[in-house]
Amino acid sequence: MSIDQSTAAKVAKLARIKVEDDALPALASEFNTILGFIEQLNEVDVEGVEPMTSVTPQRLKRRVDVVNDGNQQEKVLKNAPDAREGFFAVPKVVE
C-alpha cells in the first residue's frame, strides 16, 4: 500500500493538522515509511506466542475494595468557600 499526496492531505485534514502544500510530499513519505514498518511487523511469526502485559511475569498487587470516606473530610472542606454540616454548600439553582 502506498500513500500519495492527496491521501496525506486528507489524513491531515481529518486529524485537523494544517499542512502546507509544499510539505505534503514529505508527509506522504513519512506515512509510507510507517506503513513499511507495519508490513515488517506483519511478517513476524507469532504463532503460539501468548500476549503479555510486561516483559517479566508478575501478578498485580490487589487490595480489598472497601468504600470509605478517606478520613480527610476536614482537609477537603477547609478549601471550600462555604461548608455546612460537613458538606459543600452551594446556592440553590432549582425553584
UniProtKB/TrEMBL annotation:
<dbReference type="GO" id="GO:0005524">
    <property type="term" value="F:ATP binding"/>
</dbReference>
<keyword id="KW-0436">Ligase</keyword>
<dbReference type="GO" id="GO:0070681">
    <property type="term" value="P:glutaminyl-tRNAGln biosynthesis via transamidation"/>
</dbReference>
<dbReference type="GO" id="GO:0006412">
    <property type="term" value="P:translation"/>
</dbReference>
<comment type="similarity">
    <text>Belongs to the GatC family.</text>
</comment>
<keyword id="KW-0067">ATP-binding</keyword>
<dbReference type="Pfam" id="PF02686">
    <property type="entry name" value="GatC"/>
</dbReference>
<keyword id="KW-0648">Protein biosynthesis</keyword>
<dbReference type="InterPro" id="IPR003837">
    <property type="entry name" value="GatC"/>
</dbReference>
<keyword id="KW-0808">Transferase</keyword>
<comment type="subunit">
    <text>Heterotrimer of A, B and C subunits.</text>
</comment>
<dbReference type="GO" id="GO:0016740">
    <property type="term" value="F:transferase activity"/>
</dbReference>
<protein>
    <recommendedName>
        <fullName>Aspartyl/glutamyl-tRNA(Asn/Gln) amidotransferase subunit C</fullName>
        <ecNumber>6.3.5.-</ecNumber>
    </recommendedName>
</protein>
<keyword id="KW-0547">Nucleotide-binding</keyword>
<dbReference type="GO" id="GO:0050567">
    <property type="term" value="F:glutaminyl-tRNA synthase (glutamine-hydrolyzing) activity"/>
</dbReference>
<dbReference type="InterPro" id="IPR036113">
    <property type="entry name" value="Asp/Glu-ADT_sf_sub_c"/>
</dbReference>
<dbReference type="GO" id="GO:0050566">
    <property type="term" value="F:asparaginyl-tRNA synthase (glutamine-hydrolyzing) activity"/>
</dbReference>
<dbReference type="GO" id="GO:0006450">
    <property type="term" value="P:regulation of translational fidelity"/>
</dbReference>
<comment type="function">
    <text>Allows the formation of correctly charged Asn-tRNA(Asn) or Gln-tRNA(Gln) through the transamidation of misacylated Asp-tRNA(Asn) or Glu-tRNA(Gln) in organisms which lack either or both of asparaginyl-tRNA or glutaminyl-tRNA synthetases. The reaction takes place in the presence of glutamine and ATP through an activated phospho-Asp-tRNA(Asn) or phospho-Glu-tRNA(Gln).</text>
</comment>
